[in-house]
Amino acid sequence: MANPGYGKRAAAGQLPRRKNDFTHLPPREAAIAAYIDRLPDGTDISVKSLAKQLPYGQCALRTALNRIQRAGHLRRGRERLKTASGEFRWITRTWFTRTARDDEWWASFTRGDVPEPEQPPDPARTTRTRAHILLAALGRTTPALSLSSADCARLAPLVEEWFARGATEETLLAALTAGLPTPVHSPAALLHRRLTDKLPPPAPAPPAPRRRLECTECGVPGHPEALPGGVCRGCRGEHAPLHPRAPLPAAAVRARAAGIRAAMTLSAPERTPAPK
Questions:
Q1: Which residue(s) pair with 119 in the sheet?
Q2: Looking at the 3D structure of the chain, how many domains does it have?
Q3: What is the 3-state secondary structure (H, E, C) of 70-121?
Q4: Are the C-beta atoms of 67 and 25 separated by less than 8 Å?
Q5: In the listed set 80, 111, 142, which residue is the last one of a domain according to the structure?
Q6: Could you report the per-residue pLDDT of 65-120, keeping only the tens digit for each?
């Protein structure tokens, strides 16, 4: 494992693991990518560490990682995080995704606007959610609030909204059970009213992560658009295009020429006759 805060980080939005995740890569790169994919977050995946675990030398691993990166599975960069003391610092990151991504996706990832993939619902678990369990257990501690299975199913979405807004189970139970009337004629109606009327305000949205990518060859930081495949223009052997300057208007040319002639006249030394 790497030092705390470093090492592999699984990128967001990955699809479930499949047998053909890396079949588009050469055999060596596919084997290395599959190995990295199964490593937990925080694992040191530097060339030196991988060479100790895999039957490849450091040069071969460096070449393979570059190819894995160009295929869209890996990016290197930094992320700005808040420490326990409240300060911010930049942490080195190596993001990996089994789902190959293009440069546009990685640019969105650095901005923090990549949505999580929607997982298909599991019919076998629809009655075993956290909200459903909390509602079903109410009758054990507060018999006046005993609910049927159908009542739990109808009220569960309201409880889920409380959880989505940051409420804890203790807070929710206190809101539902405090100051009950005697008797409780309709537990489901009472709970529906309390879940609706006492709904807390939405939790503040977490700040968008600040990330920046770096060239895998030289480590220079840059915008994702300037690092296609994770490599900067200089390491790709390209040069920045030259932008010709716009021509000066005629009046400006005459003014500059006059200024140059005046400067030459003022700075010219006085001529003295040569000695005979």
A1: none
A2: 2
A3: HCCCEEEEEEEEECCCCCEEEEEEEEECCCCCCHHHHHHHHHCCCCCCCCCC
A4: yes
A5: 111
A6: 999 999 999 998 888 877 777 788 888 888 999 999 999 899 888 887 765 554 44
- CATH number for the domain spanning 81: value is 1.10.10
Range of the domain at 89: 8-111
pTM for the full model? 0.53
Torsion 171-176-177-179 (CA) sign: positive
Strand order in the sheet with 221-222: 8-10, 88-96, 74-82, 210-214, 221-222
Write out pLDDT tens, residues 162-201: 998 888 999 999 999 999 999 999 999 999 999 999 999 9
What are the φ/ψ torsions at residue 67 (nearest 5 degrees)? -70, -40
Q: Which residues lie below 8 Å from residue 210, measured CB to CB, with a gap of 6+? A: 79, 80
203 lies in a domain? no
Six-digit token pair at 65? 């990682």
b/e sequence 79-101, b meaning 16+ C-beta within 10 Å: beeeeeeeeeeeeebbbbbbbbb
Distance CA 17, CA 15 (A): 6
- What's phi and psi for 82, nearest 5 deg? -95, 125
